[in-house]
Design goal:
flavoprotein; 11 helices; three-stranded antiparallel β-sheet; alpha+beta; FAD; single chain; about 350 residues; FAD/NAD(P)-binding domain; FAD/NAD-bd_sf; 2 domains; Pyridine nucleotide-disulfide oxidoreductase domain-containing protein 2; Amino_oxidase
């Protein structure tokens, strides 16, 4: 249990609760849920520029990372076709992958196919079910894709000023503006209570909020004097109590709750808002192809990791379809902006390619 780990090392409840947020990020789980300690480990493993456990902002926004990968690929001869949806994987006579078919009917033939889509999209939508073992299909269908995440992007006309550390008179950013700011994290019990509400189909009345202001370090993201604020919030169920869907009224009601909470910590925040973009779990699924809105393509619980990710017997990036590989967050070692699954899958694919 995460609580036992944190109790062993720390005494301060606000510190323990703030660290606990990284144990439940993206997970429909409470700090009291068995196995939650691993998710915290997952978020602090590795290093950035020689600093263990460090995280950083991507200059130019997260899209700049995709652009950098694309540039590196094209420099080595890759061809990238954006906005070209894949309809299904093309199979040979022996059931092996032989390329993909686009929605416009175009066939792109290849000896290997690597899918960065979720296991659910890859195997339940892009492959004919009769080509896959029945028990494999059943396991993929049973993957835990519950997501508690609602992401809110905000444009503001001035820097938030927090009661705990008011802004300087010149309005210049302070050190805490450059960090991840955690709100409603005074105690782990608050996080558990927020989880419990969502487990019963109700958006948290006091949500867990992780607030970042990337424009402080990357001024090009906003006009002079203005900023962009990224809000990663939990907990919101994919389907609301009574089977209700996330309509515009429900979206705005939850966002208002989040903004009211921020206002308590930083008076004047609501008045500074110029615009906001609200992405509930169904929105994250529809726009980004995240199953259930899950940012990791599936739960990061202990029974879904290592040799069991995405399912037992297929944790080595290969799939029941020869020549088809899984290289996204649904593969080992899971989600996070680290590229480990893609790197590992590429090594396996290259090894196989040499024998074709």
């Amino acid at each position: 249990l995460l609580g036992q780990v944190l109790d062993h090392w720390f005494e301060s409840e606000p510190l323990k609760a703030t660290l606990a947020t990284d144990a439940v990020i993206g997970a429909m789980a409470s700090p009291h849920t068995p196995g939650s300690g691993y998710v915290l480990l997952h978020h602090v493993m590795g290093e950035l520029e020689g600093r263990r456990g460090a995280w950083g902002y991507v200059a130019g926004g997260m899209g700049a990372l995709s652009h950098a990968i694309a540039q590196a690929a094209t420099a080595r001869g890759a061809h990238i076709f954006a906005e070209k949806a894949v309809c299904h994987v093309l199979l040979g006579r022996a059931g092996e992958a032989r390329g993909v078919v686009l929605q416009d009917g175009t066939e792109v033939r290849s000896k290997l196919v690597l899918s960065n889509a979720s296991p659910q999209i890859t195997f339940l939508e892009l492959i004919p079910q009769e080509q896959l073992p029945k028990d494999f299909v059943q396991r993929i269908r049973q993957l835990d894709t519950r997501s508690p995440v609602t992401k809110i992007n905000v444009a503001v006309d001035r820097l938030p000023s927090f009661l705990a550390a008011p802004n300087a008179r010149d309005g210049q950013p302070l050190p805490h503006h450059q960090c991840s700011i955690h709100l409603n994290c005074e105690g782990t019990q608050l996080l558990h209570q927020a989880f419990t509400e969502a487990a019963h189909g109700h958006p948290s009345s006091r949500p867990m909020i992780e607030l970042c202001i990337p424009s402080v370090l990357d001024p090009g993201l906003a006009p002079p004097g203005c900023h962009v604020v990224s809000l990663f919030t939990q907990y919101t169920p994919s389907v609301l109590a009574g089977g209700r869907c996330w309509d515009e009224q429900a979206r705005n009601a939850y966002a208002d709750t989040v903004f009211d909470c921020i206002e308590d910590y930083a008076p004047g925040f609501k008045a500074s808002v110029i615009g906001r973009d609200i992405l509930t779990p169904p929105d994250l699924e529809r726009i980004f192809g995240l199953p259930g809105g899950n940012i990791f393509h599936g739960g990061m619980s202990l029974d879904r990791l290592y040799f069991a990710r995405p399912v037992p017997s297929y944790s080595g990036y290969r799939s029941p379809i020869p020549g088809l590989y899984l290289c996204g967050s649904g593969a080992h070692p899971g989600g996070g902006v680290m590229g480990a699954a893609g790197h590992n899958a590429a090594q396996v694919a290259i090894k196989d390619f040499r024998h074709l």
